Every structure is written in structure tokens, then in C-alpha cells.
Amino acid sequence: MLRRSWLQVSALASAVVALPARAKTAMTTHHSDVTVGPEGYKRIVRSIRDTFPSPTNSAAADSRFSRVMAYALSEYEKLKTHRTFLGERKPLDYAGARKSRVNKEMGDMRGTIRETARYLEGQFTWSHPDVHRLHGSSTSVSIIGQLYGSLVDPNTVWDDLSHKAAEAEVRVSAMCAALVGYDPEKALGLFTFGGTGTTLYGIKLGAERAQPGLFTEGMRQPLRVFGSDVAHYAKLSASAWLGLGSQAAISVPTGDDNAMDVAALEKALRQSIEKGERIAAIVVTMGSTDAFGVDDIEAVHALRQRLVKEYRLDYMPYLHADAVIGWAYSVFNDYEFDANPLGIPAEALHSLKLLRERMRHLPLADSLGIDFHKSGYTPYASSLFLASDAQLLNPVRRDKVAMPYLFQFGEYDPGIYTLECSRSGGPVLAALSNLMLLGKDGFRGLLSHCVQMSHLLRQKARDLPWLTVLNEDNHGAVVVIRVYPDGVDADAAYRAEKSNAGQRAALLEHNEFNKAVYLSTREAAESGESPVFVQTSRYRSTSYGEPIVGIKFFTLSVFTDPGSIDNALAALVEARKKVRTATAKA
Questions:
Q1: Rounded CA separation 476/484 (Å)
Q2: Residue 48 phi, psi dihedral angles, 5° rounding
Q3: How far apart, in Å, do the first and last CA atoms of the chain sit?
Q4: In 3-state terms, what secondary structure has residue 396?
Q5: In 3-state terms, what secondary structure has residue 367?
Q6: Alpha helices for 190-296 (secondary structure H)
Q7: What is the pLDDT of residue 439?
Q8: Which element (helix H / strand E) includes 562?
Q9: How far apart are CA 108 and CA 27, in angstroms?
Q10: C-alpha dihedral over 497, 499, 501, 504, to 10 degrees?
Q11: pLDDT tens track for 426-469
Q12: Residue 236 confidence (pLDDT) above 70
């Protein structure tokens, strides 16, 4: 519970009682009466004013707004229990929602807040130790940063509309550039609409490099995008929305470590070049969604240089790093692993050292994507597209003549080259808050804890003969497992299924078994008393093209501990038992 010097915690639920008369009226009175009679609209305006924060310093108005916020927090806090979600988790009523219409009469603030708080019910609490999803929880300061963005409402399209928030965006970009190894004096960062937005920016700039004039003239020849077969589907979305076509996105096979096979990439690139196609972008994945696979960016960079020289290409294929999850591990680039001043456990230390060997080559990419709302512990959505050099954005720069209502003044005008015109400053301030609060050591401590909990889960899982860990060669805060019926050697069965087409029937049968076990855990989780997992319907494909179904555990919460690891495995044991019993009765 938050401490508030201006309001005792015990008084939260009855905050409205302590309001000044005018504020109490504003919060509780229905406004239909003010619309009646001559000049009713004037009375409406006067009544509405109290529902806005005061634009100037006013002790009464500011106190009123603070108490409104306190009431809103009290409605949220009423929903919190020991369970994995807020309030009750009831079936969603989409049919009823479609029948809603805007009322003729005005509502009151208190009723509106109470009604809005209803839509928090059933939402999983991402920081709960029994919620194992790829959804980082948010620090208090990052929530406040996001709130400040809502209070002041800057639009970072231009510094005339965002002022210090524009400076904050430059500051965050420079901090992240230095962290990953870019030159902060040359790099340029733009907050955008999620991880997919960062990939879209990267592919767009690559397409402009491969076909100069694309921004104004449109496509004149086929362009191709290359990424691994376990990469996020953002490469497909971006290719489709940019007009390249989703078929322009070529999936390259990966190895057991879920990293792109560089030899296979070379073969695919050669085929494309020899057909006269131009390469819009090579997207390397620096921490895949399912298994935390990390591509060998150093080898990919060397490959593109070699092919440019061999084929005498008149452009350098663009290299974008989808590092939306993995970027945070750059805090270990300058960590003294031998001295280990933070006392990181040996298992986690080993994994983090292996991750550093690939993450330290991030500056080889022309650009990269960062999600603060994943491993940066901020609210959704806070994503940064970071270009190694601001000059890379020149091909998408628009003439100011096309935007006569903007950019007449100031020094910072990213709206000249951003896809968006409206960009909130909230995500910027949320990200900055955490970079200041946590620093390198804070991130190191958090990530070490997450990876150590992942190791503990793997260690305990190995003691269960009916379970196999699929991503043994990956080192992040995610464990992907696959379960089997009694009498099946899980490790041996999986080895056979993934490469032997003769095991197709067994693979498909065990896929259904895993789906059933996951559904059982999901049903149990609806009570709020059982851990929450996530299923992947295609962890990766077998050598003969069939999907491998798995169950994923993420250990991203700072509140995850050995007890929650035990709870997770116990829930899996119980779910498997229920499926086994149901199968026997069928």
C-alpha cells in the first residue's frame, strides 16, 4: 500500500467524505439538472470545469484532483487479493458491450471512476510470482513517469509541443546508445508503438537503402527481408504493411540453440541476389519470444560485407537487430565477470557471460529495437527505435512545406521523419525513470535473479522423467518444456520426434497431450489460486515440418522465488494427473 502524507490509508475508501463541498458535489452529483433551461450549455461548461485538473496553481483544485486520484487508487486496491488477478475473473460479455451507447446525460466523477475500475477485474497481475508470462511488471517510478506523461500530455512530434519531454527522449536515446555500444553523439532514438513498430522502422530504412527513392516513387522491383524461422512475426507484419508483401519475408532455418543458421542465411541471400532481387533488411533476433534464441550478429555482419564485395553490390544490405527483449543484457558488457562484485550465482553468471558474447556485438547493427515494457520494467507500450546514425533517417525525411502547422520553431522536430504525428511523452518518461532508478547494477541484479530462477526451474524439471526442457541451449529468463504420458522417456521421445519423420504420429499425439495439460493449468488458473503459464503452438518445427507444442514459464518477476518455482511444477504435476485420469475414463 502506498504511503501518502496528505491522506491516511485507512481513509482511502471514504475519500469522498473528506472532500470540500464543491469537490464533493463535483464527484457525486449527476449533471442532468444543469442542462435544463436557458443557456444550459453554460451551466454544463461550469459544471465540467471541476472534472479537469486546474491549469494553474490552486490549492483547492489541486487538493480536489489529488483526492480524486486517491479515490481511483482505492478502487484499484479493493480488487487486490493474494490471487493472480484482480477482483473476479468472469466470462467476458462482448455481446452486451456492443449494445452500449453514449448517454444523453452527464455522469458523475465518482460513479465514472467506479465503473471504469470494473474493467480492471480479472486482469492478471504481471508481477505476481505465480504469473509466468512474457510481460515485465512495472516499477512504481515508471508508473509515475507514465502518469506524468498523461498529466502534462506532451506530444513528442516536436519540441514546441513537448518541451522537456523532447529533451528526455534525446537523453534516453543517448543513454541506450552508449549502453549498447553506439556513438551517442551520432545515434538517434524514437519512441514508437511497440516492438513491431521498431522492426517496421528498421525494415523501412533498409528498403530505402536498397531502392533509393522508394519513399516518393514507390516500389520498382522486388525487395526481400530475411530473418530466422523463430523470429517474431513482426517481420511479416512490417513487410506486409510496408507494401513489400508478407511473402517478401524469408524465414531462415535455425539450429537447436534457436539461432539463425548462418550457412542457411548465406544460401538464401545468394539465391536472392542471383535472381536480381534487392535485400531490404536482414533482421537478427537478439532474444526470441519463445526460447530466447540469440542470433550471431557478428557472423551475419561479416557475411553481408563479404557478399557485397563478392557480388559488387552498389549498396550494403541493412542490418536491423530485434533486441526488444535482449537489449537489457547489454548492462553486462562492462561487468567484471572474473571478480563478480555482485556475487551472482555461478549458474546465472555462466549464462550471462555467454549472452554477453553475442550482445556486445549489437553496435554492428544499423539499428535496433528496445522494449522497455518487457525487460525494462515499464508499463505498456514503451518501445524505442534506435538508429546507429541519425543520417540513416534522411531518406524518409518529409519537406516541412507538407506540414505547415508544425515545425516553425524549436530545435527538435522528429515528426519530420516519424510515421506517427501523435507520440505520447509518457513512455519516454517511464523509460527514463527506470534508467535513472535502476542504473546498470539495478538491471544486473534484476536480470541475474530472473536467470537464476530460470536455472532453478530447469534443475528441478530435470528430476521429472515425464518432462523435457526444449530450450536447453538458451540462457534467458524463459524455460520451454514438453510433457509426456506415463511410460514415455521424455528426453528420448523428444529427440526422436524432432528429427525422425517416422515419429510423426507420436509427435502429433504428444502435441495433443501437451495442449490438454496446458488447458488443465489454464482452467485451474481461472480460480486465481494456481500458476499461470503460456502455451506455444509451435516452439519450432521438426525436420519434417510439423509443429512442436510446448509450455512456457517466464521468470521475469522480481517477486519470483523458489517457492513459486515449486508451485509451478506442482501445478503441472496436478494438471498432468487430471489429463491422465480423464484419458483413462474416455
A1: 24
A2: -70, -30
A3: 49
A4: helix
A5: strand
A6: 195-210, 214-217, 234-241, 262-274
A7: 99
A8: helix 562-585
A9: 6
A10: 20
A11: 999 999 999 999 999 999 999 999 999 999 999 999 899 999 99
A12: yes
Helices 21-28 and 109-117: angle between axes, nearest 10 degrees: 50
Average pLDDT over residues 276-285: 98
Assess whether pLDDT exceeds 80 at residue 177. Answer: yes
Reading across the β-sheet that carries 534-536, which strands appear in turn? 467-469, 478-483, 550-554, 534-536
User: What are the CA-CA distances from residue 31 to residues 17, 273, 408 (Å)?
Assistant: 19, 68, 42
In DSSP notation, 2-49 reads ---TTS-GGGGGGGGGGS-HHHHHHHH--SGGGGSSTTHHHHHHHHHH
Residue 106 is placed in which grid cell? Answer: 452527464
Residue 226 φ then ψ, to 5°: -115, 135
Count of beta carbons in the 10 Å neighbourhood of residue 247: 11
Question: Average per-residue pLDDT in the chain?
Answer: 93
Taking the C-alpha atoms of residue 95 and residue 264, their distance in angstroms, rounded to an integer, is: 49
Non-local (6+) Cβ contacts of 521 within 8 A are 530, 531, 532, 533, 551, 571, 572, 575
pTM over 0.90: yes
**pLDDT score at 4:** 33
Q: Which three cell numbers stand for residue 530?
A: 494456481
Which domains, ranges and CATH numbers included, belong to the chain?
A: 9-80+111-118 (no CATH), 145-443 (3.40.640.10), 462-585 (3.90.1150.10)
Helix (H, G, I), strand (E, B) or coil at 530: coil
- Residue located via cell numbers 483547492: 60
Q: Which three cell numbers stand for residue 515?
A: 495442449
Helix runs in 462-531, H state only: 490-499, 504-525
The grid coordinates of residue 417 equal 521523419
For residue 548, pLDDT over 70 is answered with yes
**Angle 262-274/297-311 helices, nearest 10 degrees?**
30
* Mean pLDDT for the stretch of residues 188-198: 97
The reply to whether omega before 365 is within 30° of 0 (cis) is: no
CA 112 to chain centroid, in Å, comes to: 30
Spatial contact of 475 and 451, defined as CB atoms under 8 Å apart: yes
Q: Is it the case that residue 176 has pLDDT exceeding 90? A: yes
Helix pair 490-499, 504-525: axis angle to 10 deg:
120
